[in-house]
Write a structure and sequence with these properties.
Helix 8 runs antiparallel to helix 9 and helix 8 runs antiparallel to helix 11. The chain has 11 helices and 29 strands. With 590 residues, the chain is α+β, with helices and mostly antiparallel strands. Among the domains are: 94 residues, Roll (Outer membrane lipoprotein wza fold like); 66 residues, wza like fold, CATH 3.30.1950.10. Strand 3 and strand 4 form a beta hairpin. Strands 7-6-10-8-9 form a 5-stranded mixed beta sheet, with helices on one face.
Amino acid sequence: MKRFFTLLLMLSCFTVQLQAQSLNSQVESTNESATESGFIPSTTVPQMQTGSVVQSQGVDVSRYMQSANSNSVAPAYQALSGETLSPQPYGASLFTGGYEAQRSDGINPDYKISPGDKVSIWLWGAVNFAEVLTVDNQGNLFVPEVGPVHVLDLPAGSLNKTVTDKIKAVYVNNVNVYVNLLNATPVSVFVTGPVIRPGKYAGLASDSVLSYLQRAGGIDPVRGSYREISLLRDDKVILSFDLYHFLRDGKLANVPFKDNDVLLVGQQGPSVVVDGAARYPFTFELKDKSSMGSELSYYARPLTKASHVGIIGNREDGPLSVYLPIRDFDSFSIQDGDRVLFNDDLRADVISIKVSGSYLGPSYYAVKRDTRLMELLSYIQVDKEQANLGSIYLRRKSVAAAQKRMIDESLQRLERSVFTAPTSSTGEAGIRAEEAKLVANFVQRARQIKPLGKVVVSGDGNTANIRLEEGDEVVIPQKSDLVNIAGEVLLPQAVVHNPSASISDYIVWAGGFTERAEPDRIAVVHANGLTTFMDIGEGSWYSGTQLKQISPGDEIIVLPKVDTKVLQAVKDITQIVYQIAVAANVALKD
């Protein structure tokens, strides 16, 4: 039956997706408001935030603004299908605090006096009297020469005044009175129903219903109800509790408990699972067999960004799968077993772009989607004497993720080639095992590398007018007179740029190569983000061109030599070292 239900859910989701594809092909010719199918036209894209403009030298900052397509649609439908574990019930955290063992030594001033309580009374002056009296079954304190004083259900804070007034009505002159409630009489309350440890528990009459439920281990999250809790006295319901009101509004009825009261937790009622863009993605219990979406939203509190709601469930006429705008969800009837997904399904009208490096003004810009680089550059203030406008580049999250994925795939291939290599003798197997340890260490360090996601957009005095993406970082390098030398050199350092110096000169100034250096594998990271590879004598074999000199702001990275003892892995490790040098501008030793 479980498999059959799952199959029905998957078929219903597939039907919704087919409907979405059909509507997507028609939406270009319509600007109608949201429909029951769950698609809504995007709103008009607002103008880009602007600021002071400084025309950048060396960069074409002509504006290429293209109007956004107002008929684009947001097609996202994320179905809640498959066998997933339901989240914990709303309110389950109430019983994780361990406060059942925390009791105050003092008496709550709102505590109601009950039979069996101990009260200390002192009289001095014309009459001397000191005694501890017990409240009898009729709720009275019997004071000698005064008579019974009725204190049943009297708040503890009012006890002193009430008893004093009664005594001074008899002893009018020269008598002082002091009254103090010594201790409250404990009561025994039965806690039963779907709780973790049903039984009889001692506590104070003034304790809350939460205290007694906690002593019983809390409500069973699978079987118990958080909304139907009854206090029985003499087989009659005198009060009902709904913990949802306490969780959401802080409202919890307060009633003094008595001996042999029964706190009965009801069976869990109809429930709905909430997931997605909600502040409280829990399992919610319905008060009735069905409820309006507005009530569920009141407790689940969808995030502001939530635009649509997906509902999957069953009705009398068959499986249900609906995707609708959130404004229509308030009047939608949800029932037992429904799964509700609050979804952020609107395409953002603006994207956020960060600016770093040498610039003036704000570091973040909110621009229209589909804005291009040249258009943004026209709004960025720069100091022409400080900014290297011919070497602008981007850092893009999607590129960094692709570089990371490429490195991870190469590392996986390396592991397979090393760990599954056949051996012809016991001696060779031992050598391979030692080599495998070295490779494993290299792989572990290589996986910790975080690519920068550089996108080279500048070169030969031109800047590519590419389309910006959410989260892009526009880097405007600062003009520099230095050249950095790092990697497998004896003295990694920065030296002043010399127009007549070659790459060999810079390496000599850094102390020369280490024993592990590979002279045929020298990476040069240029100010515009481009990485090229150099040979000491022959120039750049990577691009097929001759790099005659190093430019200011460049970084020279001498890469390590791959140990040729690991013959089968040399090619793979070499490839990975190159990838890391390009992606992260570091020289990782093998």
